[in-house]
C-alpha cells in the first residue's frame, strides 16, 4: 500500500462533533486498535475514520506552540471560519505571528475542484483565497508548515508529533498505515485524514437553512427577505447571483452560492494587518505573494476566491483581509464603494485613494459591473433600505446546526 492508497470507509451517522470525539475516546480505552469491551461487558465502538479525523482536526499538539489546531482558525460555531471577535489569525511557535488573510469558511466545498482556467480564460477552482491548493489534501498540509500558523519546521517534525499522539495506533489502524511508516507517509496520511473529516462530518453539507426549506416548499420567507432575494438576483441592481448562484441546478442540486471563481473587489487596505505597515507590501491574491506560479499574470492581480455565502452571517470579519467587521457593512461596501468612496478609502494628497490595497498600475483590474461602476453623485443602485433587505435575505442562508442534514437536492412536494 502506497502513502495514498487508502482503504474505503463506512460513513457513520453523525449528530455532531462531540459525538465523534466521544466515540473516538471510547475506542482508545484499553486497546490501541479500537474495540474491546467495558467493565460491564458492553462492547466499545471501534475507532472510525470520522472519529479519528475529528480528533486530528481539533488536535493542538500538531502545532509548534501546542496551542493551535485546525479548529482554532476554523471553528464549528462560525461555520468553520475565524472565531467570533477574531480580526486575523495569530500563529507561530510563540503565537505572535499574524497572518495577512482571514480564515474562510470550509463548508460547502465538496463540489469545488482543482484550480484551472475556463474556456473564456477566467480562473476558477482551487482551495484557499488564491486557489494554490488543488485539493483538500493539498490544502491541509499548508497550515501545518506555515510559519504564521502551526509553524512546523519540516514534514519530519509533523510526523514526530503524530507518532506521540495517544491515539496514534488507532490512526494507523483506521487509515491503513504500517508500524514502520515513514515521515512522508505519515504526513500524507494525516492530510488525507483531515480531508476525510470534511467529507464525513455532515456539518459540512447540512443544506437545512431557512432558504433551503423555502426552496422545498416547507418554509416561508418574510416580505423583506423576498425583497432581498429579488435584489440579489436582479442583474441591474444587486447582481449578486452572477457570482453567487442562488437557484437549484437543472438536476435539482441545491446552490452553494459561489461559482468558485475569482474577483478583484478593490476592498480597502486593512491597517490592522502588520505587514501593511510596509507601504510596498501588497497581497494581490492570484499573482502573489503566497501564490508564485502566476506572478507574471498582472491581469489577475487583486483577484481572490469568491466564497460561498451560505452561513455568511456567522463568518465575520469579511473579505480576504478581514477589513470589514460586520455583514451590514460588507453589503454596504457593495452599495456605496463607488458613489461614496470616502467612506472606504483614505485621502492622499487631497484625493480619495481608491482601491488602495493594490499598486496604482493594477487598480484597473477592479471589477466595475453592477452594483459597481458608478461615479460619486450618481443615483445609487442600492439604497439603505435595499441593503437592509439584502442582509435580511442573507441571514436565511444560515444552517441549523441542531437539525439533521437535509438532501443535497431540492425536494418538491
Concise account of the structure shown:
Helix content is 26%, strand content 4%. It has 11 helices and 8 strands. The chain has helices at 17-27, 49-57, 70-73, 136-145, 155-163, 168-175, 183-200, 210-216, 223-233, 327-336, 384-394; strands at residues 90-91, 97-98, 116-117, 123-124, 262-263, 304-305, 347-348, 351-352.
State the main characteristics.
413 residues, mainly alpha, Cytochrome Bc1 Complex, Chain D, domain 2, two-stranded antiparallel ribbon, 11 helices, 8 strands, 4% strand
How is the secondary structure organized here?
Elements: H1 17-27, H2 49-57, H3 70-73, E1 90-91, E2 97-98, E3 116-117, E4 123-124, H4 136-145, H5 155-163, H6 168-175, H7 183-200, H8 210-216, H9 223-233, E5 262-263, E6 304-305, H10 327-336, E7 347-348, E8 351-352, H11 384-394
Antiparallel strand pairs: 1-2, 3-4, 5-6, 7-8
If you had to describe this structure to a student in words, what would you say it looks like?
- This protein is mainly α and 413 residues long.
- It is built from eleven helices and eight strands.
- It has helices spanning 17-27, 49-57, 70-73, 136-145, 155-163, 168-175, 183-200, 210-216, 223-233, 327-336, 384-394, and strands at residues 90-91, 97-98, 116-117, 123-124, 262-263, 304-305, 347-348, 351-352.
- A two-stranded antiparallel ribbon has the order 1-2.
- A hairpin with a 2-residue loop joins strand 7 and strand 8.
- The chain is globular, with a radius of gyration of 23 Å.
- The model is unreliable at 1-44 (pLDDT under 50).
Amino acid at each position: 500500500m502506497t502513502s495514498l492508497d487508502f482503504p474505503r470507509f463506512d460513513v457513520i451517522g453523525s449528530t455532531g462533533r462531540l459525538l465523534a470525539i466521544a466515540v473516538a475516546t471510547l475506542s482508545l480505552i484499553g486497546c490501541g486498535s479500537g474495540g474491546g469491551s467495558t467493565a460491564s461487558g458492553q462492547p466499545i465502538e471501534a475507532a472510525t475514520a470520522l472519529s479519528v479525523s475529528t480528533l486530528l482536526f481539533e488536535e493542538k499538539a500538531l502545532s509548534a506552540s501546542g496551542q493551535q489546531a485546525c479548529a482554532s482558525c476554523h471553528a464549528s460555531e462560525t461555520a468553520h471560519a475565524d472565531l467570533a471577535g477574531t480580526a486575523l489569525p495569530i500563529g507561530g511557535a510563540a503565537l505572535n505571528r499574524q497572518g495577512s488573510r482571514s480564515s474562510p469558511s470550509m463548508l460547502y466545498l465538496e463540489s469545488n475542484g482543482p484550480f484551472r482556467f475556463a474556456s473564456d480564460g477566467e480562473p476558477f477552482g482551487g482551495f484557499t483565497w488564491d486557489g494554490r491548493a488543488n485539493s483538500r489534501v493539498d490544502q491541509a498540509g499548508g497550515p501545518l508548515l506555515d510559519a504564521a500558523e502551526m509553524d512546523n519546521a519540516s514534514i519530519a517534525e509533523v510526523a514526530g508529533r503524530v507518532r506521540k499522539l495517544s491515539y496514534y495506533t488507532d490512526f494507523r489502524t483506521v487509515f491503513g498505515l504500517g508500524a514502520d511508516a515513514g515521515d512522508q507517509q505519515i504526513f500524507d496520511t494525516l492530510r488525507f485524514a483531515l480531508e476525510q473529516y470534511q467529507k464525513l462530518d455532515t456539518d459540512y453539507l447540512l443544506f437545512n437553512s431557512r432558504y433551503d426549506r423555502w426552496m422545498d416548499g416547507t418554509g416561508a420567507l418574510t416580505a423583506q427577505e423576498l425583497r432581498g432575494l429579488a435584489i440579489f438576483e436582479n442583474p441591474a441592481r444587486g447582481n449578486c447571483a452572477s457570482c453567487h448562484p442562488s437557484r437549484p441546478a437543472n438536476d435539482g442540486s441545491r446552490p452553494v452560492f459561489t461559482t468558485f471563481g475569482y474577483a478583484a473587489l478593490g476592498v480597502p487596505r486593512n491597517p490592522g494587518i502588520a505587514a501593511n505597515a510596509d507601504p510596498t507590501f501588497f497581497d494581490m491574491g492570484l499573482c502573489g505573494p503566497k501564490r508564485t506560479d502566476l506572478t507574471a499574470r498582472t491581469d489577475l492581480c487583486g483577484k481572490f476566491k469568491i466564497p460561498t455565502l451560505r452561513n455568511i452571517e456567522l463568518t465575520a470579519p469579511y473579505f480576504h483581509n478581514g477589513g470589514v467587521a460586520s455583514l451590514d457593512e460588507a453589503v454596504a461596501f457593495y452599495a456605496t464603494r463607488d458613489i461614496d468612496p470616502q467612506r472606504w478609502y483614505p485621502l492622499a494628497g487631497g484625493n480619495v485613494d481608491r482601491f488602495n490595497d493594490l499598486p496604482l498600475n493594477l487598480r484597473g483590474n477592479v471589477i466595475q459591473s453592477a452594483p459597481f461602476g458608478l461615479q460619486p453623485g450618481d443615483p445609487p443602485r442600492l439604497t439603505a433600505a435595499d441593503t437592509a433587505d439584502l442582509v435580511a435575505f442573507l441571514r436565511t442562508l444560515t444552517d441549523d446546526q441542531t437539525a439533521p442534514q437535509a438532501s443535497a437536492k431540492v425536494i418538491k412536494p
